[in-house]
UniProtKB/TrEMBL annotation:
Belongs to the carbohydrate kinase pfkB family. It comes from the Bacteria. InterPro entries: 1-PFruKinase (IPR022463), Carboh/pur_kinase_PfkB_CS (IPR002173), PfkB_dom (IPR011611), Ribokinase-like (IPR029056), Tagatose/fructose_Pkinase (IPR017583). The lineage of its organism: Bacteria, Bacillati, Bacillota, Bacillota incertae sedis, Caldicellulosiruptorales. Pathway: Carbohydrate metabolism; D-tagatose 6-phosphate degradation; D-glyceraldehyde 3-phosphate and glycerone phosphate from D-tagatose 6-phosphate: step 1/2. Pfam families: PfkB. This is Tagatose-6-phosphate kinase. Its EC number is 2.7.1.144.
Amino acid sequence: MIYTVTLNPAIDMTVYIDELQKGQVNRSSLCIIDAGGKGINVSKVIKSLGGKSIALGFLGNDNKDWFLKYLKNMQIDYDFIFVDGLTRTNIKIVETAQKVYTDLNQNGFEVKKKDINLLFDKIDRIAKTDDIFVISGSLPPGTDEDVYVELIRMLKRKGAKVIYDADGKALESGVLEKPDVIKPNIYEFKCLFDVEENDLASIVTSAKKLIENGIKKVLISMGSKGAVFVTENMELFANAAEVEVKSTTGAGDSMVAAISYGLSQNMDDVSIFKLALACAAAKVSKEGVKAPDKKEIERFFEKIKLEKLGELKWI
Ligand SMILES: Nc1ncnc2c1ncn2[C@@H]1O[C@H](COP(=O)(O)OP(=O)(O)OP(=O)(O)O)[C@@H](O)[C@H]1O
Ligand SMILES: O=P(O)(O)OC[C@@]1(O)O[C@H](CO)[C@@H](O)[C@@H]1O
């Protein structure tokens, strides 16, 4: 089974506006509201791919009904721990004139020690060998900095596979626990290694250090500049698909969904990477934080070209 763990989910409000005027009253041309947060988005895309996951984590008691209805409508299974307060609302501003994407993320509800204990007990009870756990997103106030470290440790002890997508200090400490897969974007990767954004060779060399240390797959996403995938067996690069971008929110989560679904289906590395790029392309062509359709994902999958790095060969 695939489980997604979201400690800090969000109601994503994507607001479309021609051009934001700071310090003035702005009126949007379109507003789309979705249940989000990184792991939740992963569960949404796994569903589009025809897979099954259970969404775990925390959800605010005061506005949980809307959130749960959204997931029920999508037929996504969940098993949350409900905490006091509201699940945060994150604002995503899409300025259509210049194609500028701005995120305004809130801190989120306060989580108590007893809530964390409940979550760990739950995961301890359900995790089995070869389950896949996706751990992603920010930590809500009240959580210790090393909560992901402890979670990865516990899951690895139980023989579960861990896909990890966090940033800053949580990423730095989490990689030391050797999750099976990580999916940093280039800015997050730069917290780990001093690399230049355009220097593929040094990005690959750095990613290989993580592989030597026991992480099995590293996917570095680089927004419109594409992505690099380094595994025990290969080093691949791909350009981002040419697509009319309607919202970039959740593009990285779509890649994480593809990796977890691919692992659950025993796909090879080339297919996993192609699927990740196809899911991301299909996602960015959707408004708001809607999951892409399977047909769209398949259409992009056929078009993706990968470059085997070091071999100058496109596959
Ligand atoms: N502007 C864009 N045009 C085309 N493809 C894009 C664009 N932005 C993102 N993508 C695709 O989505 C992938 C993931 O994007 P990105 O690196 O921005 O992830 P991220 O920062 O983790 O995203 P998020 O945190 O919003 O989920 C990219 O590798 C690329 O394939
Ligand atoms: O504040 P975090 O937890 O880092 O990120 C939260 C978030 O930006 O991530 C998702 C996109 O990846 C959105 O659904 C959500 O609003």
